[in-house]
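agent: user wants the structure for ATP synthase epsilon chain from Desulforamulus reducens. delegating to structure tool.
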Amino acid sequence: MAKTQRLDIVTPEKVVFSEEIDFVVAPGADGELGILPEHAPLVTALKVGTLRVQQGGKFFKVAVSGGFMEVKNSRIVVLADTAERADQIDVERAKAAKQRAEQRLNSKGSEIDVHRAEIALHKAINRIKAAE
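agent: tool returned. relaying tokens verbatim.
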């Protein structure tokens, strides 16, 4: 039987996922990281992106919006600001959020927080891509 590792994806609101998996690719702050069972211990920041998880020969995606990942003793803990399985993403809601962020960025008002609007746009695009 193939070796597996535990993956726990946790947000401030809930445990999104907590099961044995085969492999995960995570959006590390310095690039993507592939984690197999018995990986060397590691702690890294995560950027907005998509976790790609292989479990039992099948793949699924989880959209994350930053956080941290710890790998130790064939256990992976992802502490994410937000996390949403691709099959649970409301694509229409994500598209609406993308449109709102684009409208904010295109407006010329001084009350617009450009950095915040850019982050919102990036998160919305990530959710849409993860759901595809």
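agent: one observation worth passing along. The helical segments are 91-106, 114-131.
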